[in-house]
Every structure is written in C-alpha cells, then in structure tokens.
C-alpha cells in the first residue's frame, strides 16, 4: 500500500492517475473495515459462517490484487488499488473480532497490541527490506544497461513491471501462507463457530446482575 505512488510511476501512469490510486486505497480501506464487520456478523448469525473462513476469503482476494500488479496487467492498477485497500481494511476488522471471540476480553488489550504490531513489522520487512532492495537492484540494472553510473546520493528510478514483479510475487506467497494458517484455524474452531459463541457473554452478564 505504501508504495502505490512509486508503483504507478514505474508502470508509466500519469500523476493524476497516481493520486487517484492513493485515494482509492484510502477510501476502500475504510469501506473494507466497515463492511467486513457487518458482513461477517450477518453471515455468522444467519448461516453459521465462521469468521476465520471469511478472513481466508479476504486474504485470497488480496492475492488477486497483488498478482495484477506483479504481472502488470494494462490499466489494472485501478482495480488492484480497490482490492488491496478493501482487503487490508477488512482483514484487520475480522482479525480483532476473532481474537475477542476465541480468547475472550480478559487479555484483549494485550492481544490487540500484539496483533497490531504485526502491521509495522510486516511493513518494514516487506516494504523496506524486500521491496526496496529489489527495486534498487532493478534500477541499478537499468542504469548499467544504459551505460550510466550512479552518483553519490542520487535517487534511483526504475521503470517497468520488473521493478515490483518479484516483490509482489513474494507478497502473494506470504499471503497464501496466511491463507493456509487461516484454513487451519477454520478447522480447529469449526465446533466453536457452529455453536452459540455469545452464550458465555450472556451468562457473565446474568451473573453480574
């Protein structure tokens, strides 16, 4: 998400379109947070559709957004921005809800903080260490192909699909690992979600009265 502006430049999109991409990510990030909460609650209440399975579907959908960028499908960055923004917002709403349902509220603040720490940690590893490194390496290749030498302190500019292809393929692979973990959680919690998950909260409320 943080590199969409640079991705747009690398793929040759005009400045106006790049601004649109960034706006789309922010808007759909918000819509993902709001709609995923309502949708997962409705599906759970009416159809006993487990929230971890909803998380798995969101992660799978985000893979399609990553692959659209990785393979540079023409004019796909608009769609990819919507998908990535929506899925990023949706997954956090669902994750924090799952934490409260499975582990309860006693240590929720601690678990919330631990889960929230995953975002900056992943951003550092995937954006800085992996994406940044691969971008710079491809930019250096392009400079060498033109017979140019990088001056000290000079910013690197990379043009083309190859600038981000490997990085987004790695992100897709990482997301697929998350899907597998989520599927395991679906299997391990299927009895819990087919039952009355709010029973213990009602009982606690009655005892307090």
UniProtKB/TrEMBL annotation:
One of its GO terms (cellular component) is membrane. Signal peptide: none annotated. The keyword Secreted does not apply. InterPro entries: MFS_trans_sf, NFD4_C. The keyword Magnesium does not apply. Keywords: Membrane, Transmembrane, Transmembrane helix. It comes from the Eukaryota. PANTHER family: MFS TRANSPORTER (PTHR21576:SF122), UNCHARACTERIZED NODULIN-LIKE PROTEIN (PTHR21576). Belongs to the major facilitator superfamily. Phosphate:H(+) symporter (TC 2.A.1.9) family. This is NFD4 C-terminal domain-containing protein.
């Amino acid at each position: 998400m943080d590199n969409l502006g640079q991705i747009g430049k690398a793929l040759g999109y005009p400045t106006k379109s790049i601004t649109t991409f960034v706006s789309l990510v922010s808007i759909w990030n918000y819509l993902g947070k709001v709609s995923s909460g309502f949708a997962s609650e409705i599906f759970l209440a009416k159809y006993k559709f487990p929230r971890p399975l909803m998380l798995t579907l969101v992660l799978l959908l985000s893979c399609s957004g990553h692959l659209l960028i990785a393979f540079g499908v023409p004019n796909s960055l608009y769609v990819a921005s919507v998908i990535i923004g929506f899925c990023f917002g949706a997954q956090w709403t669902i994750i924090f809800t799952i934490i409260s349902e499975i582990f309860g509220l006693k240590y929720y603040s601690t678990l919330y903080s631990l889960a929230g720490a995953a975002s900056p940690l992943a951003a550092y590893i995937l954006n800085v260490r992996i994406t940044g490194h691969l971008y710079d390496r491809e930019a250096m290749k392009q400079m060498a192909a033109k017979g140019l030498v990088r001056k000290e302190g000079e910013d690197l500019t990379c043009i083309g699909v190859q600038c981000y292809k490997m990085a987004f393929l790695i992100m897709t692979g990482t997301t697929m690992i998350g899907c597998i973990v989520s599927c395991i959680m679906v299997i391990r919690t299927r009895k819990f979600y087919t039952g009355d998950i709010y029973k213990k909260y009602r009982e606690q409320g009655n005892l307090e009265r």
